[in-house]
Amino acid sequence: MLVLKGSEAAARIKKEVQEMVEGLGGHVPTAAIVRVGERPDDLSYERNVMKKIASFGMEARSFAFPESIREGEFQAEFQKINDDPSIDGILLFCPLPRHMNGRTFEELIRPEKDLDGISPVNRARIFAGEKDGFAPCTAEAVIEILKTYQIPMEGKRAVVVGRSMVVGRPLSMLFLKENATVTVCHTKTADLKAVCREADILVAAAGKAGMISGEFVKPGAVVADVGINVDENGALKGDVEWDGLEAAAAAAATPVPGGVGSVTTAVLCRHLAEAAMRKYGAEQAQN
Ligand SMILES: NC(=O)C1=CN([C@@H]2O[C@H](COP(=O)(O)OP(=O)(O)OC[C@H]3O[C@@H](n4cnc5c(N)ncnc54)[C@H](OP(=O)(O)O)[C@@H]3O)[C@@H](O)[C@H]2O)C=CC1
Ligand SMILES: Nc1nc(=O)c2c([nH]1)NC[C@@H]1CN(c3ccc(C(=O)N[C@@H](CCC(=O)O)C(=O)O)cc3)C=[N+]21
């Protein structure tokens, strides 16, 4: 079984990003990483993001706010970042604390700075299959890994387990854009195993460790594991039961860690470079 390593896709994206940055006439793309509270998940994701942006030769500025901050005060601070011309892109950690209305900030963030595709404008562009919208990085990372290994998607059955706004829904639209035939599963799907076994490409994005065992996989299928679960010993586990894949004669699969996650942060970097290019690249072209 072929292991679809995130590092290959990330390396290809890194080259693309460096070429884009070279065309910016010396401007260093700068991202604002905005976090409210100290959720451990967010802290580890933030570390991965900051490291990756720096390794791609760009700049990341962390804006951390206490969980207790009033919504109005945070909104004023967020607007400053949103309007700051030195900030090319923003990653806002969602969901925000319960006392805040997430939709307010989805509608506030400038679409051209919205690196993780949370704004309704970007969601509409992804829904319409337009290329200038920013999709949530994880959804795009799945497609990038499949493209890196030339996994055919056109005319293939893609089954996505999960329908969240961060992964399942946008990913279904991205598969559609690749002319795959898409099925989206969730907790109300009848006979989930049978539906998953129809997949040529099976994506696990349910957030349930080891939920997708070998019986969910048709021989020759390709499996992309988006899940990030921490087991009792603190080790990272995907949604896929890795050991069962060989017996199921899966053709290829992405590991956790070292698969989708490592490409998610690379895609975020590409969005940052694209945002900067749209702003400065255009100016460069005019000069
Ligand atoms: N690698 C990366 O970059 C990222 C990884 N992740 C990981 O991906 C996973 C999914 O994240 P996210 O989309 O935010 O999760 P959510 O919890 O928001 O969504 C989970 C989805 O899976 C569905 N689901 C859950 N259990 C089952 C089940 N037993 N059978 C069928 N469907 C099920 C839910 O269905 P329903 O809608 O009916 O409730 C829901 O649509 C998590 O492990 C998360 O850590 C997330 C973001 C980025
Ligand atoms: N709107 C939104 N967008 C997200 O993209 C999002 C989110 N919410 N909520 C939290 C999850 C988590 N997430 C990760 C991304 C990359 C790694 C990552 O780099 N993982 C590497 C390294 C793992 C390690 O060893 O630390 C790997 O899997 O190989 C981890 C976690 C994005 N998330």
Automatic annotation (TrEMBL):
NADP(+) binds at G162, R163, S164, I228. Residues 136-278 form the Tetrahydrofolate dehydrogenase/cyclohydrolase NAD(P)-binding domain. Signal peptide: none annotated. The keyword Transmembrane does not apply. It holds the Pfam family THF_DHG_CYH_C. InterPro entries: Aminoacid_DH-like_N_sf, NAD(P)-bd_dom_sf, THF_DH/CycHdrlase, THF_DH/CycHdrlase_cat_dom, THF_DH/CycHdrlase_NAD-bd_dom. Homodimer. This is Bifunctional protein FolD. The lineage of its organism: Bacteria, Bacillati, Bacillota, Clostridia, Lachnospirales. The gene is folD.
